[in-house]
Amino acid sequence: MVLNSKYSLLKLLGDGTFGRVVLARDRDSNRDVAIKIIRDVERYMDNAKIEADILKDIRKADPRGTSGCAIMYETFVHESKFFCLVFEPLGTSLYDFLKDNEYRGYWMQDIQHFAKQSMQALAFLHDSLRMTHTDLKPENVLLCTMDARESRFPREAEWMREQKMSAKELKPYMRPVSSDIKIIDFGNATYDDEQHSSTINTRQYRGPEVMLSCGWDTLSDQWSIGCILMELYSGNLLFETHEEMEHLALIERIIGPLPGSILESASSSALKKWFTQQGGGRWRLNWPDNSSSMSSERHVASQRPLNKQVPTMHAGLTDFVAELLELAPGKRKTASSMLKHPFLTEMIYDD
């Protein structure tokens, strides 16, 4: 099949709720492209057109494609009903690559490079476009290459102990040939001067200011990246939960007590739902009093503080992540300032 009189379809790359993505060859330029074909459903089409407008703004501000954000070449309508977006072809998502490796984490050198590129991309979005992505997660960060090579997993012994697995049960560990990445999925991106939704982000990557309805800005993206980097290291969600109360308890267990500054700006409904006011006007999380189960209490109690989740030789990672997971958003570092963090230039050893 040929789309828009010039794109020869090569293969299906993936299916989703919104539609599908196919690999095609552009006959005019003789280059491969990825085409996102949106289902003929009004709300999917409307969302895709909003995303396309945002992607046009990104391309205009980044004509050379160096920002670390996905590049859209053009849009067209197929058979008068299918809205299509044409992108540079990229590899698999960081999540899918992690999953294919049976949730064994990435090499530290790769994580260091992911961290630097994430900050560069967010510095571009936040400073140049005044935009918050609002849905950063490993599924929305793609490797630029489809190629991988078999490698050893440097933290295999510790990982197997924690997972109670033997080497015989594992398939070969793969490492991407290149650690270059691009951020995708701008369908929910929000400009600073636009109406801000009350709830953003997938739960496990959602900052406390969003959970407590304090209002949010570009710094909420920083929190999400902090969660992502720790997941890429361990293979596990940093905040593995589906409950809001448990989520807050995990944050206090792993990061520390929620500061008064954020609780003072929280909505009255959030405070009433999850906290109790003590003497002196201070608020305390109703945990474990209002936990949903004993297993939930055990899950929270089993978590280690952030700085205990990596060995000493990798302390640079948790030093970096701690700046991103600053509980008070007003004290959280911007992406541009995080580019000066020593972790991004330190010599990494992964043995």
Notes on the structure:
This protein has helices at about 40-60, 95-100, 110-130, 155-165, 210, 220-235, 245-255, 260-265, 270-275, 295-300, 315-325, 335-340; strands at about 1-5, 5-15, 20-25, 30-40, 70-80, 80-85, 130, 140-145, 150, 175, 180-185, 190, 275, 285. It has 2 domains: about 1-85, Phosphorylase Kinase, domain 1 (2-Layer Sandwich); about 95-345, Orthogonal Bundle (Transferase(Phosphotransferase), domain 1). A 6-stranded antiparallel β-sheet has the order 1-2-3-4-6-5, with helices on one face. The protein has a two-stranded antiparallel ribbon with strand order 7-12. A two-stranded antiparallel sheet has the order 8-11. It starts with a strand and ends in a 13-residue tail after the last helix. It is built from 12 helices and 14 strands.
Uncertain segments of ≥5 residues (pLDDT<50)? none
Helix content: 25-40%
Oligomer: single chain
Strand order of the largest sheet: 1-2-3-4-6-5
The CATH fourth-level homologous superfamily of the largest domain? Transferase(Phosphotransferase) domain 1
Order of helices and strands: EEEEHEEHHEEEHEEEHHHHHEEHHH
Q: Rg to the nearest angstrom? A: 21 Å
CATH class of the largest domain: Mainly Alpha
Number of strands: 14
Task: List its traits.
351 residues; 14 strands; Transferase(Phosphotransferase), domain 1
Strand and helix layout:
Layout: E1 2-3, E2 7-15, E3 19-26, E4 31-38, H1 42-61, E5 72-78, E6 82-87, H2 94-100, H3 108-128, E7 131-132, E8 141-143, E9 148-151, H4 156-163, E10 173-176, E11 181-183, E12 190-191, H5 208-211, H6 219-234, H7 244-254, H8 260-264, H9 268-274, E13 275-277, E14 283-285, H10 294-301, H11 315-324, H12 335-338
Helix pairs in contact: 3-6, 6-11, 7-10
